[in-house]
Specification:
The protein is of the alpha+beta class. It has 4 helices and 5 strands; from the N terminus they run E-H-E-E-H-E-E-H-H.
Amino acid sequence: MTTLRPPPLSLLDKYHGQDTQTLYSTTVTVTGGDAGHGRASGIARSDDGNLAVHLRLPRALGGPGGGTNPEQLFAAGYAACFHGALSLLAARAGIPIPDASVDVTVDFGRDPMDGLFILTARTLIRLPGVERAVAEELVRNTERFCPYTKMARQGIENVVALAQPDDAGQS
């Protein structure tokens, strides 16, 4: 049995370089499923096989529910990343946070700027037993450190490209 451990505090060491230094990369592929629509009936699978979920349109958007959706997956990733960053910074500062929790609420809505769609997120951190001023400083530092929070504030480098006809059997 593998003993689970938190990541090393060396992840807090600053990187100095001109280009992004990739530490981990993953690919998730979504196919359309029964309805031929990734959001309504898709299947999301990671390249290592550890993630395999059926996507379903939530009832609030006219779907049947009964499966996860992109907003839940994003909220889960964001909350996990923020909690992990918070835990690393707390460990470095010698602040025990055994009962810490992070709630991320993601809203899918209409964008008043273009009339299309937008995501908004709200993050709520609970740090029971930690003095308020200490907790506030820890949360502020985590906001600067967490890559999901940085992405939400600053955007993300993103390249969208159409695969060539010979890429993985695509046409």
